[in-house]
Amino acid sequence: MELNVYLSGEIHTDWRQRIKEGCEAHNLNIVFTSAVTDHDASDAAGDLLGEETNQFWRDHKSAKVNAIRIKTALENCDVGVVRFGSQYKQWNAAFDAGYLAALGTPYITIHDEDIIHPLKEVDASALAWSTTPEQVVEILKYVSTKE
Length: 147
Known about the structure:
Elements: E1 3-9, H1 15-25, E2 30-34, H2 39-43, H3 55-76, E3 79-83, H4 91-103, E4 107-110, H5 120-125, E5 128-130, H6 133-145
Parallel strand pairs: 1-2, 1-3, 3-4, 4-5
Helix pairs in contact: 1-6
């Protein structure tokens, strides 16, 4: 079975690469999509429409330009994987999880135990909670290869 998997969440660790490499090692037929993970490029996406002196409007324009990619990828994925790191608050990841839930698209969360409480609603809609990228690989392996 081929799966289209959207990877959402924090951009400061190698979790995306670990999932991709793990799935490749098992020869899983998975296409991965994601938001732009270059923080500076993502923040500057609205600059394509002209320079903005007010930070609110710069962020607003950038969010809308980025949403073209994100909304399309979320609506076309089979499964979402939403990563929450402990160091930064990923409001965008929480938004993506809510969007996936509203679409009825299954998603898996990845986060440490120390943030279970603040993510209780997000986890309640997830079909799996994992603590490592390797657990996600095992889930994807199971759902895409078992008969």
